[in-house]
Design a protein that fits this description.
Blueprint: H1 2-26, H2 33-66, H3 73-119, H4 129-172, H5 180-192, H6 194-220, H7 222-227, H8 231-283, H9 291-313, H10 316-330, E1 354-363, E2 366-376, E3 381-386, H11 392-400, E4 407-412, E5 415-416, H12 422-426, E6 429-432, H13 443-448, H14 456-465, H15 469-475, H16 491-505, E7 509-513, H17 521-535, E8 539-543, H18 547-550, E9 555-560, E10 563-568, H19 570-573, H20 577-583
Parallel strand pairs: 3-8, 3-9, 6-7, 7-8
Antiparallel strand pairs: 1-2, 1-4, 4-5, 9-10
């Protein structure tokens, strides 16, 4: 007794959580409410017309066999009218259903993508690409199905069941209310299994994401997998992920089969009991024989909508899991406030100057930077060097305002970075990362990301400055495809595309993350000279490990354990043990 009570409470709690997640997302679909209402009304009328055709046809047949001379002209007119209504509303249903589906899918995907864009990049840390892609694509598609198919079906289930039961009761008396029992049982049974549905839904989404991630790794990591002889191993990972998905799907299908079998059994039992009772009444002369087949048909039809609803409820676990995942993204806290803070002090004599004033920053209470002071003025470049984990990239992320410091303040152009809208502020910057991301498309499309309305002449000039114009010409020009993630280009070529982007952007501040890391040594000196030209007149930060990149800078800051341990020119720092340890045997090269 206690166990059953606990299960009921658990079912109610899980159901409330799923409904809450789905209702939160439904609130974003208010623009579609009018169209949704119209589409649902059309669906109800279409189903009623379809049912009316079956009922009237059966009544005509029964009446004809009972009395071949019966006047059936009115019924034939009614039947023809129902066929016309059915055809027209079937067409309207298809049209409106697709329209509302596309609108809902658009709203869900735009909302999800906007949230991803809002919290990136900090909010996406520790999240797999497959997780994000699944939420933005497959989860939104699943929810579109819920809002455009399942929800209208639930509404028409309630309306149609009431109408059919009312007509049945009008025909045969209070005994027609008997079919309410199988209706209730059909709906209650899936409700009892909601906790199982929830677990299976979450497991299904998670295993599908694992499978997508495994396949993505297998496709994108072919070069590494083959060079390491791990192709077979990765194939086994994909197979294992596929088997886990299949196992979850089998359990899901078994549960649904049990739910449908129970619904079928209850419906059949109710119809048989009603048939026995009505047949006895016909034999006793208490009921017109022509009404018997119509009554049995209506009895079945009154339960079928509940049967459809029960089938839909069997997927509530999947829908709830999708809604939960998307809501996590939508409700994620904005790591960087977009609204500029008002009333901040403007520091003078800091035009286009980046200042880190006693900066401190921690990841999950783990200190990364502490008491860092830095000033980078225009026409001056500063290289930040240090061992892995010293805080170099964190400092660059603070400068880009991908992060906000826990202590101290970052200023640019005399104003605390909190005083800028982050996107407006970043329009004044340009980042050349060590691993430059190339988007699927053409070289032109990748370079046009740097600046709207840029001319071909400007693009070619930037390519020449990045020493990649000749290669682009050999590939077929600016409209040459570069493949997904720039797979047709080498690492050095991708980095030179990134440098060309920076030339096109013409920023106030330039952040270079090991700009010569993947560059051929034969091109290194030439590109280094062009990078010096690029940073001319600009505030420049260079995150560096290699001596060639370090020498681009005018001033060098050495980080260790989150603090500045040395700074100066390359020549001056040759007497510093921290600096010499970082460079290692590069000094002798």
């Amino acid at each position: 007794m206690s166990s059953a009570l606990n299960n009921t409470r658990l079912s109610k709690g899980v159901t409330r959580k799923m409904l809450k997640d789905l209702l939160i997302l439904a609130g974003k679909l208010r623009k579609c409410l009018g169209l949704f209402t119209l589409a649902t009304l059309v669906l109800i009328i279409w189903n009623l017309a379809e049912t009316g055709i079956a009922v009237v046809s059966l009544f005509i047949s029964s009446a004809f066999f009972s009395d071949t001379q019966a006047e059936l002209q009115g019924l034939f007119i009614l039947l023809f009218s129902l066929v016309v209504v059915y055809s027209v509303f079937n067409l309207l249903d298809i049209w409106l259903a697709h329209d509302v589906a596309n609108r809902i899918l658009h709203i869900l995907r735009v909302s999800t993508y906007s949230a991803i864009n809002r919290i990136a990049p900090l909010g996406l840390q520790n999240k797999r690409t497959a997780d994000i892609a699944s939420a933005a694509l497959s989860d939104t598609s699943e929810l579109e199905w819920f809002y455009t198919q399942i929800l209208p079906s639930a509404i028409f289930t309630i309306v149609n069941s009431i109408i059919f039961t009312t007509i049945l009761t009008w025909l045969i008396g209070p005994i027609g209310l008997f079919m309410i029992i199988p209706m209730i049982l059909t709906i209650i049974f899936p409700f009892v299994l909601v906790p199982i549905q929830r677990r299976q839904g979450v497991a299904s989404r998670e295993t599908l994401v694992d499978l997508r991630a495994a396949v993505l790794n297998a496709v994108q990591g072919q070069r590494e997998l083959r060079s390491l002889g791990m192709v077979k191993k990765q194939h086994e990972v994909v197979i294992a992920a596929t088997e886990r998905v299949q196992k979850i799907k089998n359990a899901h299908n078994l549960r649904k089969a049990l739910e449908l079998a129970f619904s079928s059994l209850v419906t059949a039992a109710g119809s048989i009991i009603l048939l026995i009772i009505l047949t006895d009444r016909v034999l006793n002369g208490q009921l017109d024989g022509r009404i018997l087949p119509v009554a049995i048909l209506l009895a079945g039809l009154s339960v079928i909508p509940s049967y459809i609803l029960a089938d839909a409820m069997g997927r509530m676990g999947d829908f709830g899991a999708c809604a939960m995942r998307i809501n996590k993204i939508l409700k994620a806290k904005d790591p960087i406030p977009t609204e500029p803070r008002r009333g901040l002090e403007k520091h003078h004599n800091e035009d286009n100057t980046l200042v880190a004033d006693d900066i401190g920053f921690s990841y999950d209470s783990q200190p990364v930077l502490s008491g860092v002071n830095l000033t980078v003025s225009p026409s001056r470049s500063v290289a930040i060097v240090g061992h892995s984990g010293a805080g170099k990239s964190t400092l660059a992320n603070l400068a880009m305002r991908f992060l906000d410091p826990d202590d101290g303040e970052m200023r640019f152009d005399g104003l605390n970075l909190h005083g800028y809208n982050p996107d407006v502020y970043r329009q004044r910057l340009s980042l050349v990362p060590q691993d430059c991301h190339i988007f699927a498309g053409t070289i032109r499309q990748n370079l046009e990301l740097a600046k709207d309305g840029v001319s071909d002449d400007a693009i070619w000039e930037a390519l020449k400055l990045a020493d990649i114009a000749t290669l682009v010409e050999s590939l077929g020009g600016l409209d040459a495809p570069v493949g997904d993630r720039g797979t047709t280009l080498s690492g050095g070529e991708r980095q030179r595309i990134g440098i060309a982007r920076a030339f096109l952007r013409n920023p106030d501040m330039l952040i270079l993350d090991e700009p010569l890391a993947n560059i051929d040594p034969l091109l290194e000196a030439n590109i280094a000279a062009n990078v010096r030209r690029l940073r001319g007149g600009r505030t420049t930060i260079v995150i560096a490990h290699r001596l060639a990149s370090i020498r681009i800078a005018d001033h060098i800051i050495v980080l260790d354990n989150g603090g500045v341990v040395a700074q100066g020119t390359h020549k001056k720092l040759l007497n510093n043990m921290h600096y010499l340890e970082l460079l290692g045997n590069q000094i002798q090269q």
